[in-house]
Design brief:
Layout lengths: L12 E4 L4 E5 L2 E8 L8 E7 L5 E7 L5 E7 L5 E4 L1
Antiparallel strand pairs: 1-2, 2-3, 3-4, 4-5, 5-6, 6-7
Protein name: Accessory Sec system glycosylation chaperone GtfB
Organism: Streptococcus pneumoniae
Length: 84
């Protein structure tokens, strides 16, 4: 999955370069996109979704084919509580 193909809500914007990418809602950062290692730059490895306070609440994990194979949910204390 290429970084600008991550599904986002209407009017949210994906901003990225060769080092990193993020998803913004007007002026607030809603997610951080982590790239996979290797020659194929800007392919998504995981997306860290944030709540309104900026804490990571869910992480989507992607395989090399661009499919989301797992989602990890985090508590308010930033502890992983469930992976599906």
């Amino acid at each position: 999955l290429y970084f600008n193909q991550v599904p986002v809500s209407d009017f949210w914007e994906i901003l990225g370069d060769n080092q990193s990418a993020c998803i913004e809602d007007v002026t607030q950062e809603r997610a951080v996109i982590h790239y996979a290692d290797g020659m194929q730059a800007r392919l998504v490895k995981q997306v860290d979704w944030k709540d309104l306070e900026g804490r990571v609440r869910q992480v989507d994990h992607y395989n090399r084919f661009g499919a989301c194979f797992a989602k990890t949910t985090y508590s308010a204390d930033s502890e992983p509580i469930m992976t599906c």
